[in-house]
Amino acid sequence: QVQLVESGGGLVQAGGSLRLSCAASERTFSRYLMGWFRQAPGKEREFVAVINRSGDNTSYADSVKGRFTISRDNAKNMGYLEMNSLKPEDMAVYYCAASYALFSRVVRDYAYWGQGTRVTVSS
Fold first, then answer.
1. Which residues contact 77 (CB under 8 A, 6 or more apart)?
2. Taking every pair of C-alpha atoms in the chain, what is the biggest distance, in angstroms?
3. Exposure string (b/e) for 53-79, b if CB count within 10 Å is 16 or more?
């Protein structure tokens, strides 16, 4: 099974940018669908973005479309989430996750999760 470790979270002012990284433990990382999710205090975990195994198909939540970009580098076993024009409502713990599904935006389809990295956006 794959282990995932996120990094790159922190404090940023509204309008700023952050780049989150997700390091996978396996060389077979390319076999997994990869997604990013987030969870704000008192709220359910929600979908942010997903990228397919080859990296040529992506999907985004409407709330982040045009501001966030998901990518992956299978040769390095890494996934990324570039976040621009950050808003206070983007503040949450961000998780990367891996799935055996063909393509999914659903939390329950993801079998493996990182520990999360916190993003704080000041207004």
1. 23, 24, 25, 26, 27, 29
2. 40
3. beeeeebbbeebeeebbbebebeebbb
Is the pLDDT at 117 greater than 90, yes or no?
Answer: yes
**Model confidence over 10-38: pLDDT tens digits?**
999 999 999 999 999 978 899 999 999 99
Percent share of the chain, pLDDT over 70: 100
Q: Which two tokens stand for residue 29?
A: 């990382």
CB atoms closer than 10 angstroms to residue 50: 25
Beta-carbon count within 10 A of 109 CB: 16
| pLDDT number for residue 28 | 85
Going by C-alpha positions, the residue among 86, 105, 91, 96 that lies closest to residue 47 is 105
The C-alpha atoms of residue 100 and residue 86 are separated, in whole angstroms, by 30
